Amino acid sequence: MKEDCGLFGIWGTPEATSFTYLGLYSLQHRGQESAGIVSFDGRDFFEHRGMGLVSEVFSPRLFNGMKGEAAIGHNRYSTSGESSLRNAQPLLANLRGRKFSIAHNGNLVNSQELTRELEATGSIFRSTLDSEVIVHLMARTKEDDPIEMTVEALKKVRGAYSLLILTEGGLIAVRDPWGVRPLCMGKLNGAPVFASESCAFDLIGANWEREVDPGELVWVGKEGVEGFHPFPKSPSAACIFEFIYFARPDSRVFGVTADRVRREMGKQLAREKPAWADIVISVPDSSNTAALGYAQESGIGLEIGLIRNHYVGRTFIKPDQPSRDLDVRIKYNPVRGVLKGKRVVVVDDSIVRGTTSRKLVAMIRRAGAKEVHLRVSSPPIRFPCFYGIDTPTKEELIASRWRVEKIREYLGADSLGYLSIEGMLSCPSLPPIGFCTACFDGNYPI
Predict the structure, then answer these.
(1) Interior/surface letters 344-380, b for 16+ CB within 10 angstroms, e for the rest
(2) What is the mean pLDDT of the chain?
(3) Hey, is 424 helix, strand or coil?
(4) 77/105 Cα distance (integer angstroms)
(5) Strongest mean pLDDT among 112-126, 218-232, 301-315
(6) Alpha-carbon distance 77 to 58, whole Å?
(7) CA distance linking residue 429 with residue 446, whole number of Å
(8) pLDDT above 50 for 319
(9) What span, in angstroms and rounded, lies between the C-alpha atoms of 264 and 425?
């Protein structure tokens, strides 16, 4: 499963481009296909986008030419549209003699319908992004004020969006009325900053202030900061997977710290699905915190049983059949002295297709484990996401086809246990808002 995208924006500091670069660096886990920054110096816009990691896309030489006291940035995974440079964000557009730039995290469920309508009346798209639909809708409005243009355009779309829009007069931050994707707001020496997660603020020394509310539009300009609620109120549907997997554990999303929620999910998993075992290990790194919670609640010692290679990039080598599990062995290696002769609880955050989990179970057995008990700190994923996460089709999701016992047999584990939806939502540190659980139960809120 691929993460969604990462946003960062800042207004009112001469180091805007540098801070945006650092913000994107801290949000690299949210998107690794492309990165981009657009800055504004009061007269001109400057842009640079490229394929790859933030460190690969930008260089010190580029920053010398990207001046300005305002900037927005974007890390991308392709949940909508192909993976190519033309789809890298932020987008920069020219409208009625004025430029503006837009960066989007999420997915519009009516983008294809809107694209067909816009193309039928003369619009020409340069990308396959649903984000560009918003640009064309803004161009079609009769409004001249950027706030009104944004509101009128967004009234026509349905789906998940957290947006940053950089204009000549100010910076707009806005979330969809359901609040599916996170977007938080802070201050850096008086300069307003926005990011998908608070870890971006920590890196640059900014203070977290609050979440942008669902359905709220925040305008930052020379006159200060103003918040508006121009859209009809909708039931809250924050993405629960931000806590399960996507957000960095040190980040605050939807107002609370991901680390605390994950620990509680691990503890609840131990209560619901105990196992007679000697050690608990995680599938690093996204499962580390849940495994810690499982170990604390169960009283079973936590060990480091798998080592993750943090320098894994894209590999073009596809060896023959005997080495078909090379992709997993490149990423993980077992600690044989820890696993040999032990009954092992392996905590993972989720199982998607099941192919990786099957290879991991086999790897742990080859390392000498006596028993392998797989525990998953989320419910079975049975349905695809349409709100900004790149999930496989329903047919490819193993839990949509098989019951738990058959999945266990396929994985080769001695036992398999998932966290229940009720247990997941009962974690006391979750914020008092509604969550989207469509990938587990098929109840799509939008």
Answers:
(1) bbbbbbbbbebbbbbbbbebbbebebebbbbbbbbbb
(2) 92
(3) helix
(4) 10
(5) 218-232
(6) 18
(7) 26
(8) no
(9) 10
Asked if 223 and 182 count as a contact pair (C-beta separation under 8 A), the reply is no
CA–CA distance, 365 with 368 (Å, rounded to integer): 5
**Helix 404-411 crosses helix 355-366 at what angle (to 10 degrees)?**
50
Ordered by start, the domain boundaries in the chain are 6-234, 260-308+317-430
Taking CA 207 as the corner, what is the angle to CA 289 and CA 193, rounded to the nearest 5 degrees? Answer: 105
**Phi, psi of 219, deg, nearest 5:** -110, 130
- Cα separation, 41 vs 66, in Å, equals 9
Contacts 24+ apart (CB under 8 A), 393-399: 396/352, 396/353, 397/352, 397/353, 398/351, 398/352, 398/353, 398/354, 399/351
Mean pLDDT calculated for residue range 393-405 = 95
CATH architecture of 6-234: 4-Layer Sandwich (3.60)
SS (H, E, C) 19-80: HHHHHHHHCHHHCCCEEEEEEECCCCEEEEEEECCHHHHCCHHHHHCCCCCEEEEEEECCCC
Enumerate the active-site residues: 5
How many CB atoms within 10 Å of residue 441? 13
Residues 6+ apart with CB under 8 A from 306: 281, 282, 283, 284, 332, 333, 334, 335, 360, 364
Window from 100-104, 266-270, 310-314, 349-353 with minimum mean pLDDT: 310-314
Sign of the Cα torsion 231, 236, 239, 242 reads positive
Residue 105 scores a pLDDT above 70: yes
Specify whether the CB–CB gap between 300 and 292 falls below 8 A: no
CA separation for the pair 239, 52 (Å, rounded):
26
Residue 418 CA to its chain's centroid (Å):
22
Instruction: Select 260-308+317-430's CATH number: 3.30.360.10, 3.40.30.10, 3.40.50.2020, 1.10.150.50.
Output: 3.40.50.2020
